[in-house]
Amino acid sequence: MRSVGPRDTPFLHKFTGVQLFTLAQETAEDWWEVEALFDLSFAPGRTALSSYRLREDVPPVAELCRVARDESGILGGAIRYWPVQVGGAQVLLLGPVAVHPTAQGEGLGAALIRDTVARAQENGFARILLVGDEPYYSRFGFRRLHGVTMPPPTNPDRVLGLDLVPNAWEAITGSVQRTP
Ligand SMILES: CC(C)(COP(=O)(O)OP(=O)(O)OC[C@H]1O[C@@H](n2cnc3c(N)ncnc32)[C@H](O)[C@@H]1OP(=O)(O)O)[C@@H](O)C(=O)NCCC(=O)NCCS
């Protein structure tokens, strides 16, 4: 098991306070295990989704790709981010994010999202975009984005954004584009 680094974050169980997982930056050795977790957590054919065309051949934002492992090194959850553009503005695309089915509902998904949103803000990013369920992501401050379109077919109600600096999404409209 890898040693704990200075940028690692402990994740404590919300009721018992016991440390269940440690969040750390994803490494090259984690890649395929994270892919397997995403395969398990999403419907088959996830990579056929239009959002994956925005990620193809573009490196993810390394410092925001984080894995949660328990004390035995078992992977409990993971999150990745990619750089994209909307109307010429730089945007972070959150996702995929997934928690292993045996660890869901204990706050780990929230921990991965809060940890990386805070890091993104510290690192000077202005705004985040994702495609997901507003009833889940609204608790982190994500709101429906009007005038921002993902490659079809994407339900516009699932296109959500978060400001990391005040009014970061104001006046930003257009289709979401790959980073050139
Ligand atoms: C979505 C996911 C990452 C959340 O992680 P988690 O660790 O289970 O979530 P948390 O423990 O932080 O939060 C649990 C709460 O979120 C709610 N929730 C989870 N998914 C939700 C959804 N899609 N819509 C609305 N609420 C949702 C749960 O009902 C629970 O509610 P409660 O706090 O009122 O009990 C996880 O369920 C998962 O991996 N799902 C499969 C993959 C996926 O759908 N990823 C997101 C793509 S948009």
In short:
With 180 residues, this protein is of the alpha+beta class.
Defining key terms:
180 residues, alpha+beta, Aminopeptidase, ten-stranded mixed β-sheet, globular
Give an overview of the whole structure.
This protein has helices at 31-41, 50-53, 108-122, 134-137; strands spanning 9-12, 19-25, 66-69, 75-86, 89-99, 127-131, 143-144, 148-149, 159-163, 174-178. With 180 residues, it is α+β, with helices and mostly antiparallel strands. The chain has a single domain (9-178), classed as Gcn5-related N-acetyltransferase (GNAT) (Aminopeptidase). Strands 1, 2, 3, 4, 5, 6, 7, 8, 9 and 10 form a ten-stranded mixed beta sheet that branches. Strand 4 (75-86) and strand 5 form a beta hairpin. The N and C termini lie far apart (37 Å). The model has no long low-confidence stretch (mean pLDDT 93). Coenzyme A is lined by residues 41-42, 97-99, 104-110, 132-133, 135-136. Residues 41-42, 97-99, 104-110, 132-133, 135-136 line the site of coenzyme A.
CATH topology: Aminopeptidase
**Average of per-residue pLDDT values:** 93
What would you report as the Rg, rounded to the nearest angstrom?
16 Å
* Sequence stretches where pLDDT stays below 50 over 5 or more residues: none
Counting structural domains, the number is: 1
The appropriate CATH architecture is: 3-Layer(aba) Sandwich
Cofactors, ions and other ligands in the entry: coenzyme A
Can you identify the CATH class?
Alpha Beta
- What shape does the CA trace take? globular
Span between termini: 37 Å
Encode the helix/strand succession as letters: EEHHEEEHEHEEEE
* CATH homologous superfamily caption: Gcn5-related N-acetyltransferase (GNAT)
Tell me the major beta sheet.
10 strands, mixed
Helix content: 10-25%
Based on helices, strands and strand pairing, what is the structural class?
alpha+beta
Proportion of β residues? 25-35%
Q: What is the tally of helical segments? A: 4
